[in-house]
Amino acid sequence: MAPSSSSGLTFKLHPLVIVNISDHYTRVKTQLNPPASVCASGNASNNGEAMFQQNPRVYGCVIGVQRGRTVEIFNSFELLYDPSTQTLDRSFLEKKQELYKKVFPDFYILGWYSTGNDAEESDMHIHKALMDINESPVYVLLNPAINHAQKDLPVTIYESEMHVIDGIPQLIFAHTSYTIETVEAERISVDHVAHLKPSDGGSAATQLAAHLTGIHSAIKMLSSRIKVLSQYLAAMQKGDIPCENSLLRQVSSLLRRLPAMESERFQDDFLMEYNDKLLITYLAMITNSTMNEMVDKFNIAYDRNTRRGGRTAFM
Amino acid sequence: MEGSSTIARRTWELENNIPPDSSSDCIFYYDDTAQSKFQQEKPWANDPHYFKRVKISALALLKMVVHARSGGTIEIMGLMQGKTDGDAIIVMDAFALPVEGTETRVNAQADAYEYMVEYSQTNKLAGRLENVVGWYHSHPGYGCWLSGIDVSTQRLNQQYQEPFLAVVIDPTRTVSAGKVEIGAFRTYSEGYKPPDEPASEYQTIPLNKIEDFGVHCKQYYSLDVTYFKSSLDSHLLDLLWSKYWVNTLSSSPLLGNGDYVAGQILDLAEKLEQAESHLAHSRFGGSVPSSLHRKKEDESQLTKITRDSSKITVEQVHGLMSQVIKDVLFNSVSQSSKSPSDSSDLEPMVTP
Predict the structure, then answer these.
(1) Best residue of A39, A112, A226, A287 to probe chain B, by most B CBs closer than 10 Å
(2) pLDDT per residue over A173-197, tens digit each?
(3) What is the ipTM of this complex?
(4) Residues of B with CB below 8 A from A275's CB?
(5) Is pLDDT at A23 greater than 80 in this prediction?
(6) Residue A15 sits in a domain of what CATH number?
(7) How many CB atoms lie within 10 A of CB B58?
(8) Number of compact structural domains in chain A
(9) Which residue in A has a C-alpha nearest to residue B296's C-alpha?
């Protein structure tokens, strides 16, 4: 197992990268194992690669930006890898890099990705090969095995570190933690695809239900995490577990951050926004109640021009 | 803990006939011979209404929405790759094109042809064997429909690059409403009179674009859009939730869209003024039948306005609800001087 990294860089991963890698893997796997009903004649070359059919390894590059100590991985694309010579197709990489630079001029190559269970020795060759593009590339590993008992994302990010082992300085992989970062639009589409919400407007009631259900699940997660923490702390208090000071410090700093916002200005802004929304609701209510058939029926009934001398007095 | 929500979701999926995951992976398989056979047959040449459905993969949707949103208020465009399957067009992937969006540019694709050819070639090497099957662009803030320029571009495409599909995404409305605003269209050829089709879902169009919309809206039809994902995708997305809930809770749809909301309300006010002037004119109308007829038009105009206003309000109220919930959760802790009951007042739901 690779040791934890100590470089101090924070990594942020966008969900698009995860879906990209998964799609690449599914494509390659399906193309190698054609579904039985579709084709029997083509793809006769499969027989020699029996052991690759189960879990083909795919390779690709990840791109993004690095600002100071934060590395943000936005997107990824595929690479050609030749397993016999264990080299990456360099010209392909450069061509793809050029194409992506035209559309996303801010992003540059941050590292590479692959699928599999664990980092292997051969991966170090690829890693070293990429070092001339980026001095310290990252290695994103996705484990495509579907294991329903898993509770956590099977994605690990490795960095390379120089360690002295047996007197020889060597590069080894060290895994780092990362957070999932997203923009609002990405979150909505991921949500949409993950939960396959009804795509049409529906009535206001279903929209409200969908919105509140989302928030409700998020709050449930929050409360379960807090429960875990509080149980841990209670056990520590009882003496079941040795006291861990760093954890206690973190928890206390977390608690000291509540309430999250307490300034006068925040309250003012918040109330102003609240009042704005109330005003909008009021306006909508007025519009709703007056701009309807009653107005037109009133006009028809009390039309002052077509009924001279009629009910003009009323208007 | 998570058990009840998974059970609820599985029941929902069952009720809505979502096909089981294992068989949906075969959609990723690209059968070269079957596709070229389909190309030769050209069943769409005889029936302008041939393609009825679109299936978009999770990856393509994500890429298109992120690209559209990254453009801000500028329109962006890109191409989609995929294949056909009977009367459905399947979109497997999408990629962006390096062109600056301006509505007046008819031949934006001429600039990007080189890019497209190179990209397709490299993709084929990397194992993505599908062909270009459509184009997408964004209408930030003004809804999913085809403008006049779009209609003529798509007509050209449908003449020379069949099968081809046009997709429009509105990233601003997506963020504001909390659901993906996307539409897929195919045009009819010149002079073809389509049979009356059922009214599609209503969407509000800003006043400055409504003329463009009205003139061309009968020249194309929209297709049903559904989404699919692979089994690995579903598995990963499930697990993603364990890290993602933080973002869901912390998202503030109100903050990014102030401009757009103000624009919508202004537009609504202008529409009201227009409706009012119509009503004023109709009072001086001649015979009763014609004035009645005009009143009917204004009636529907007024109903549209009320629907728009309800929609805007509903979105705002949703955003406010999130803010209030967060305030209650994280702010009303110990200080009894600030009474928490003030901020936990949720006002009643606006029913359209």
Answers:
(1) A287
(2) 888 888 888 777 788 888 777 765 5
(3) 0.75
(4) none
(5) yes
(6) 3.40.140.10
(7) 24
(8) 1
(9) A296
pLDDT tops 60 at residue A157: yes
**Within-domain flag for A168:** yes
**Closest CA of chain A from B127, distance in Å:** 7
Q: Flag whether residue B321 sits within 8 Å of chain A, measured between CB atoms.
A: yes
| Residues spanned by the domain of A106 | 10-32+54-180
The whole-number pLDDT of residue B69 equals 85
pLDDT at B299: 54
Measured CA to CA, the distance from residue B213 to residue B205 in angstroms comes to 8
Pick the closest to residue A183 from A8, A9, A14, A35 (CA basis): A14
* A-chain residues near B20 (CB < 8 A): none
The reply to whether B9 touches chain A by the CB within 8 Å rule is yes
In chain A, residues with a C-beta closer than 8 Å to the C-beta of B302 are 291-292, 295-296
Name residues whose C-beta falls within 8 Å of residue A250's C-beta, 6 or more positions apart in sequence.
none
Instruction: Please report whether residue A213 resides in a domain.
Output: no
Residues of chain B with pLDDT under 70: 1-26, 44, 100-111, 193-202, 282-300, 333-352
Q: What is the pLDDT of residue B12?
A: 53
Answer yes or no: do A180 and B240 touch at CB < 8 A: yes
The reply to whether B110 touches chain A by the CB within 8 Å rule is: no
**Chain A contacts of B284, Cβ < 8 Å?**
305
State yes or no: pLDDT of A77 exceeds 50. yes
Q: For residue range A228-268, list pLDDT tens digits in order.
A: 988 888 888 888 777 788 888 888 888 888 777 777 888 88
Q: pTM of the entire structure?
A: 0.77
Q: Quick count: other Cβ atoms within 10 Å of Cβ A308?
A: 7
Closest residue of chain A to B291, computed from CA coordinates: A300
Give the tokens for residue B35: 């596709």
Q: Report if residue A199 sits inside a domain.
A: no
In a domain, A191, yes or no: no
Mean confidence (pLDDT) of chain A: 76
Q: Note whether B113 contacts A: Cβ–Cβ < 8 A.
A: no
pLDDT in tens, B248-275: 777 777 777 777 888 888 888 888 888 7
Cα dihedral A213→A215→A221→A224 (10° resolution): -90
Q: What is the pLDDT of residue A48?
A: 36
Facing residue for A20 by CB, picked from B32, B59, B265: B59
* 8 Å CB contact of B59 and A267: no
Kindly state whether B114 is in contact with chain A, defined as any CB-CB distance less than 8 angstroms. no
Given CB atoms, is B346 within the 8 Å cutoff of chain A?
no
Among all chains, which residue has been given the structure tokens 């047959």?
A: B41
Distance in angstroms (rounded) separating the CA atoms of residues B211 and B321: 36
**SS3 state of residue A301:** helix
d(CA B110, CA A26): 33
